[in-house]
Amino acid sequence: MYSILTGLFGSLLLVLLLTGLMPLGATVRYLPWILGFNASVAGYTLLDRSGNQLAYPKISGIGVGALVAILVGNLLNVLTFKMAGIGLVEGMEMLVFTLIASVFGGLGAWLALTYARIKE
């Protein structure tokens, strides 16, 4: 739960910072980078906090990355629809963002596993 919240709030905070610096539509260009970074942080945090308790750690990292992307995309759509009357992320973009975040979530999990092996 902590890892999902880390990825969610980190992504929302960066998007809000960017919308203060540039127009709302221009932030979509940077959303894959933001989601990728925060999904990798979420994947790393998931494995770092759980230790060796997960049966499939890499798949869990992929799942947490996808969940962060889906939650952030839906929350951004709700927020931008309430504020500006437009949806920020459309269907195909959401699919691409979810795939990117899944890959980076898996990479974050792999990094946590590698760091745990080196630390031993």
Biggest sheet statistics: none
Q: Structural class, please? A: mainly alpha
> How would you describe the shape?
elongated
By DSSP, the count of extended strands is 0
Number of helices: 4
- Helix share, percent: over 70%
Low-confidence stretches: none
Domain tally: 1
Terminus-to-terminus distance: 26 Å
Radius of gyration: 15 Å
* Strand fraction: under 5%
Mean pLDDT: 90
Q: What's the SSE pattern? A: HHHH
Explain this structure:
The chain has helices at 2-21, 31-50, 57-84, 91-119. It has 120 residues and is an all-alpha fold. The protein has one domain. The protein is elongated. The two termini are 26 Å apart. The model has no long low-confidence stretch (mean pLDDT 90).
TL;DR of this structure?
The chain is mainly alpha-helical and 120 residues long. The protein has helices at residues 2-21, 31-50, 57-84, 91-119.
Topology, element by element:
Layout: H1 2-21, H2 31-50, H3 57-84, H4 91-119
Helix pairs in contact: 1-2, 1-3, 2-3, 2-4, 3-4
